[in-house]
Amino acid sequence: MAIFVSCTQPKKENRKVIVVHARGISYPEMQEYLTATKSDLFFKRNEKNITKLTPITNAVTISNIASFETGESPSEHGIVGHLYVKKENEKLSLVSGFSQPFETETFWEKADLKGKKVLNIGSLTLHGKYITHKNVDALSQGTQIGKPIILELKQISSNDNSLVKYRNSNDEFKIPELQNLVVYKTKDSQLIFDNDYNFDNGFVKEATLGNWFELDNNLKGKWLNKSSDSIQIYVRPQYKNKGYPKEFIQSINENIGNPTGWPNIGYYTSKKIDSKTLLEEIYSELNHIMKVFTSTSQKKEYDLIMIDYPLMDRIGHSFLGLKKSSKEIQLEYKNAFSQMDKDFNTIEAFAKKNNYDLIITSGHGFSPIHTSIDINKFLTKNSVNTNFNSKDWEAIGIPAKVSSHIYINDNLSIENKQKTLKKIEDAFSYLKYKDELVVDEIYRREDLNKIGLDHKNSGDLFVLLNPGYLFENNSNEKTFWGVPKFRGDHGYSLKHKESYGIFISKIKCHDCHSIDISKTIEKRLFTDYSSN
After folding, report:
1. Nearest one of 61, 144, 147 to 97, comparing CA atoms
2. Which phi-psi region, left, alpha or beta, contains residue 523 (left: φ > 0; alpha: ψ -120 to 50)?
3. CB-based contact 461:424 (threshold 8 Å)
């Protein structure tokens, strides 16, 4: 009798992972929501799995993303700020951290190199250390074409049928529909875009007050006001899906359509649009990301799915400074958490059904802001020559939101360098706004290793502001103080409780830091969990 012995080995099994980077959820806000909510959705069910997360120092957006994805501090991955100076061949050039490749590999690039299939949705960058990737389907936030504008339609005539003609008075932004005559029908608050008074033969476009309407070329407009002599229409620019490979992007174009783009916070801050309009933009962007996740994840099996979930980052930048005094904004925060609860519930259900480990993290918290500082105007006022085009320049500050690298002219003598450093340190140490100290910490170059910012491209001084303030250029010639574009921001010192983010997962992360997450993901992806 022949005896057959099976030589089949146990099949190797590695875990699949979904990582949601929900930037901007602060740990105190999360605790506040959990205390107040009666919802039994995702957050309440996972309350015991919610951990306070320690961010890197200077957790501005791109530095935070680089540390989250590489598991390294800025001194290692090289992205030392939102903006900074790159030093090459004794030349200084201003760069955005978003445009620079990381100096170390990301966890998703390691997965790609090991043949894992990766889906990356809503990313702010399409690169890590490398520009090209073999097994990655990636969709960024999109590409903006053109710019937003407020169109002013001026009354030119009226008739006995309560119909008033308007014409576009802005010649800079030529949209075919709006170059023709516009007829305003007062009886039912409709705008009729047409080139005659005969509606029986049709019309070009119609719109109602306070609602969005479609224009050609993927443009959207919104009628903002009702006035007897003029009409304001807010027109958003075009946006296109951006990513790789091209077949993946083409599939999104065909099945989902173009993105609506990011919210226009600057127009809201300058009171060109209201909070309702801005919130519509915020949720429209989020809706596109969730549609892409639902569609693409059903059509192909991935080992790693990454979702950049922008809701709380958008809400924080737009409204946080108003939250304390506005019941309307407090309600919008509650609504935002409720939306996250629903979306994360959807993602969790997909993860369970398809055997994924789920990790949700914010990477940083959020602090309200109210005042901006033009750093180079401030330095000039304190007798520091910031004229970079002059051979006698002394120092230049790079406004990078909550912090700034300050670079001293290498051609200065050692004595003058020290004098300039001391002059700047003293000026910032005593800077106050309404009797409140503005600067939190000042570091010299040799001390940056203490906060993980010791890199060749870091400044000779690094200034970190207190919550409430940020560095931003302004056009006011009389003062270095200004009104910031954003109402909230992140990256402040870890001594402030609102700086801390969250980590949510059944995978334990004790004394969790943002740079720990990539190692946790790599362990799940690359460890063989098959039984022997």
Report:
1. 61
2. alpha
3. yes
Whether 269 contacts 472, CB under 8 Å: no
* Structure confidence by residue, pLDDT tens digits, 89-112: 778 899 999 999 999 999 999 999
Identify whether 10 is preceded by a cis peptide bond (ω within 30 of 0). Answer: no
d(CA 383, CA 516): 44
- Domains defined for the chain, CATH in brackets: 16-143+241-266+275-363+496-526 (3.40.720.10), 149-236 (no CATH), 371-485 (3.30.1360.110)
Distances (CA, A) of 184 to 166, 194, 202: 7, 10, 15
pLDDT, mean over the chain: 90
Percentage of residues in the chain with pLDDT exceeding 70? 89
Give the closest residue to 397 by CA, choosing from 411, 380, 412, 413: 380
**Beta-bridge mates of residue 182:** 166, 193
Q: Say how many C-beta atoms besides its own lie within 10 A of residue 336's C-beta.
A: 24
Residues 226-239: pLDDT tens digits?
A: 776 778 889 998 89
**For residue 490, which amino acid is it?**
H
DSSP 493-524: -TTSGGG-EEEE-SS--TT-BGGGHHHHHHHH
Please enumerate in sequence order all residues whose Cβ is within 8 A of that of 117, keeping only pairs 6 or more positions apart, or say none. 135, 137, 300, 301, 302, 303, 304
Left if phi > 0, otherwise alpha if psi is -120 to 50, otherwise beta: which for 421? alpha
* CA end-to-end span of the chain: 29
Are 103 and 76 contacting, i.e. CB atoms less than 8 angstroms apart?
yes
Cα separation, 62 vs 48, in Å, equals 30
**Going along 280-352, which residue ranges are E strands?**
304-308
CA angle 74, 79, 84 (to 5 degrees): 120
Sign of CA dihedral 408, 413, 418, 419: negative
In sequence order, the 6+-apart residues with CB closer than 8 A to the CB of 166 are 153, 154, 155, 156, 181, 182, 183, 184, 230, 231
Q: Report the alpha-carbon distance of residue 267 to residue 155 in Å, rounded.
A: 25
Q: What is the pLDDT of residue 444?
A: 97
Beta-sheet strands, E only, within 136-189? 136-140, 143-145, 149-158, 163-168, 182-185
**How far is residue 115's CA from residue 527's CA, in Å, rounded to a whole number?**
14
Q: Are the beta carbons of 373 and 526 closer than 8 angstroms? A: no
For residue range 3-53, list pLDDT tens digits in order: 444 444 444 456 899 999 999 999 999 999 999 988 889 999 999 999 999
Report pLDDT for 31: 96
Element (H, E) at 442: strand 439-444
Contact present, 164 and 231 (Cβ < 8 Å): no
- For residue 401, the model assigns a pLDDT of 95
345 CB contacts (<8 Å, ≥6 apart)? 41, 42
Helix H segments across 402-452?
414-429
Three-state secondary structure call for residue 233: strand
